[in-house]
Amino acid sequence: MNKKEDRKSRIALTLLFAGLTFGILLLFLALVAVIVVVFVKTDLVSVVSSVDVNKALIIFLFVLFCLVTGAGISFLLSRILTGPINKTINTINRLAEGDYKARLEIGKPLSNHPTIIEITDSFNQMAARLDKTEILRTDFVNNFSHEFKTPIVSIMGFAKLLKRGNLSSEEQREYIDVIEEESGRLSNMAVGILQLSKIENQSVLSQKHMYNLSEQIRNCVLLLEKKWTEKGLEPELVFDEYEIEADEDLLKQVWLNLIDNAVKFSEPDCAFRISIEKKENEIHVHVANTGPDIPAQSLPYIFDKFYQADESHSGKGNGIGLAVVKRIVNLHGGEVSVQSGGGKTAFTVTIPQ
């Protein structure tokens, strides 16, 4: 629908409101007349015949004035009612066209009504969230493009050196190690994007079954053994044996992401702690590490897609892992939260049984 048709439809809506208001006014006047006739028992015919021409003309003009005034008031009331609707539609259209700075503001006298306040607040929060997501998406694309390009350039450069030959065995091994490491980085980035895309399109867990959660977490710690041993870290596993009904493959991604984060941001030669406890019908898994605090301003966004607390992107990561964690936990009907302060950061995953 083009702007001309939009304008016509809104004028039609205004006239519809005006017609309804005017119709209600006429109905009210007719009802008053009926009440007068029925209860006062006035003979309208005799009243009309007894009125002279001048008085009849005055009455006619007065009635006409009332009708015109009523129509004007009806139109003004309809403008007051449809004004916020038009403003809301215009703001929604701006948002739909990609203007994420658009904010809804309803003028007086309706702006102080609780319902209008709720509508404007909800809309503006949604717009702010979309604006933040768009900024994060743009930052992610720029950062991801850079991170994707860097290992490719490294692989190409060292592959060319290997192709030239005249290298010692030690140099060949060194270059091959670099190619292997950079290939792993590319693979991890691709896997992260694919995982996020897959679970975002998933709404039902079809692979749920009972299994040993404690054993799964121990296996995840072993899978990341190389990383935590290189930093001199010591895992503290504080839990008994717990069974859980869930999608085993999806929850494995949760534990790998959280443990990998704990290792990545732990201070060298420290310990990271994993504990499990059962409260009523819920399983709580805590993954904690000692290291730099997450800034307070970053905590509300830490689980958003593409978000990185380190805005310089100097650290490893691409803002996907925690978004994957949150989505998987939500699919299980659970919650994930984070607390950070005093040199300690702890993630808590809560899954209902």
Query: How are the strands of the largest sheet arranged?
Result: 2-4-5-7-6
Residue-averaged pLDDT, rounded? 77
Individual helix count: 9
Just name the CATH architecture of the largest domain. Answer: 2-Layer Sandwich
Q: Distance between termini?
A: 50 Å
Based on CA inertia axes, which overall geometry fits?
Answer: elongated
Radius of gyration: 35 Å
CATH fold assignment of the largest domain: Heat Shock Protein 90
Query: Structural class, judged by helices and strands?
Result: alpha+beta
Helix content: 55-70%
Spell out the CATH superfamily of the largest domain.
Histidine kinase-like ATPase, C-terminal domain
Describe the structure.
The chain is α+β, with helices and mostly antiparallel strands and about 350 residues long. The protein folds into 3 domains: about 5-100, no CATH class; about 135-200, Signal transduction histidine kinase, dimerisation/phosphotransfer (DHp) domain (Helix Hairpins, Orthogonal Bundle); about 210-350, Histidine kinase-like ATPase, C-terminal domain (Heat Shock Protein 90, 2-Layer Sandwich), CATH 3.30.565. It has helices spanning about 5-40, 45-50, 55-95, 115-165, 170-200, 215-225, 225-230, 250-265, 320-330; strands at about 210, 235-240, 245, 270-280, 280-290, 335-340, 345-350. The strands form 2 sheets. A 5-stranded mixed beta sheet has the order 2-4-5-7-6. It has a two-stranded antiparallel sheet with strand order 1-3. Strand 6 (about 335-340) and strand 7 form a beta hairpin. Helix 5 packs parallel to helix 9 (about 320-330). The two termini are about 50 Å apart.
